[in-house]
Design brief:
single chain, 351 residues, mainly alpha, 0% strand, 2 domains, globular
């Protein structure tokens, strides 16, 4: 056993939740962002402006999204170059065979293929043949065996959440908004979770509400400590920056979380806010304004449902859910917390 542990250490193979559940998952979301998500935004602009070149980019990025995710995962796992490059084929196969749940299939299969490739890397004199062959054979072989079942399971679970939200928009609006919002602030990827589950429709709208509440909420309630740089880094970057402060005083998390519990059902029951764009947008919040942009692209060039011409109430609802209500509610909720001494000056100061 000691020899095996020494081998894993030498190969930089770390079997842990952090490595797979945080590092790999977060990298997968970045790969998806740098391919399908940004391509969808560019493609939508191309459709609206009738610019064929931009429209084509959207198609290209969709074709290589599996590749981008797998390579990003390999990078997070510190894969050797030969393994990293071989993961391109693995990602394409897993995403293609995984169907609607392709991102989850890519995550699972790319991790296994990358670790197998790392295990044999530079162990033979014909490494240029062995390493890519093992990585690709393991990855594509697993894709043929389990990508579809994984994808079907993820799709079924995502469909269950969406069905439950349609059936009980108030309760599920709260549940989805709070849980996805919390995931956004935790050092895991809410975007990757939404992508893996294909979280769109009304449930996707609730997820957008929860993520925006966390990001805008923390940005606003910490303004006195962090000023404009903090407003931008949290409001357009990530509320994850507050995790060290949350570990010191979990009560600072109350205001944004309660705000998400309020905006979620308002999104589902009052404005019927739906995310019909790319599912990864549901878990992005106001990061680069991807959440609101995803809703807008879903209006004009939806991935599910039919295109609509948004009315004034749609625009008002989007602004209220994503920006105005999270800011106002978080400030109002945080005031009594400060008076009680649960939140003090300096508790929200970013390092």
């Amino acid at each position: 056993m000691s020899k095996f542990k020494a081998f894993l250490k030498r190969k930089n193979i770390e079997i842990s939740f952090k490595r797979y559940g945080i590092d790999a998952l977060g990298a997968m979301a970045q790969g998806l962002f740098c391919s399908l998500l940004i391509g969808t935004i560019i493609g939508t602009i191309g459709n609206l402006a009738d610019i064929e070149f931009l429209t084509q980019i959207g198609g290209y990025t969709k074709d290589v999204s599996g590749v981008a995710m797998a390579v990003a995962i390999g990078y997070a796992l510190k894969a050797d170059p030969m393994v990293l490059f071989s993961l391109a084929t693995v990602g394409y196969a897993a995403n293609s065979l995984g169907g609607a749940g392709g991102p989850l299939a890519v995550l699972v299969i790319a991790i296994i293929a990358a670790e197998c490739g790392k295990a044999v890397s530079k162990e033979t004199k014909i490494d240029i043949l062995v390493t890519p062959a093992v990585t690709i054979l393991v990855g594509v072989g697993l894709s043929a065996l389990i990508a579809k079942p994984i994808g079907d399971a993820a799709n079924a679970f995502g469909s269950l959440i969406k069905y439950a939200t349609d059936l009980q928009p108030f309760l599920m609006g709260i549940t989805v908004s709070v849980l996805v919002g919390i995931a956004l602030t935790l050092p895991i990827s809410s975007a990757a979770i939404c992508a893996a589950l294909g979280l769109t429709g009304l449930a996707g709208g609730a997820a957008v509400a929860g993520c925006c509440a966390q990001m805008v909420g923390f940005a606003v309630i910490s303004f006195r400590e962090n000023r404009w740089s903090g407003l931008v880094s949290q409001g357009l970057g990530t509320s994850m920056l507050q995790m060290p402060n949350i570990m010191k005083n979990p009560r600072i998390w109350i205001a944004p979380t309660l705000a998400s519990a309020i905006t979620g059902p308002i999104a589902t029951c009052v404005f019927h806010l739906e995310m019909n764009g790319v599912a990864v947008n549901s878990g992005m919040g106001t990061c680069g304004l991807c959440g609101p942009i995803g809703v807008i692209t879903g209006w004009y060039t939806p991935t599910v449902g039919e295109a609509i011409t948004p009315a004034a109430m749609d625009w008002i609802g989007l602004a209220l859910i994503c920006i105005v209500l999270p800011a106002v509610l978080s400030l109002l909720i945080n005031l009594p917390l400060r008076k009680l001494g649960w939140v003090k000056d300096g508790d929200l100061k970013l390092a």
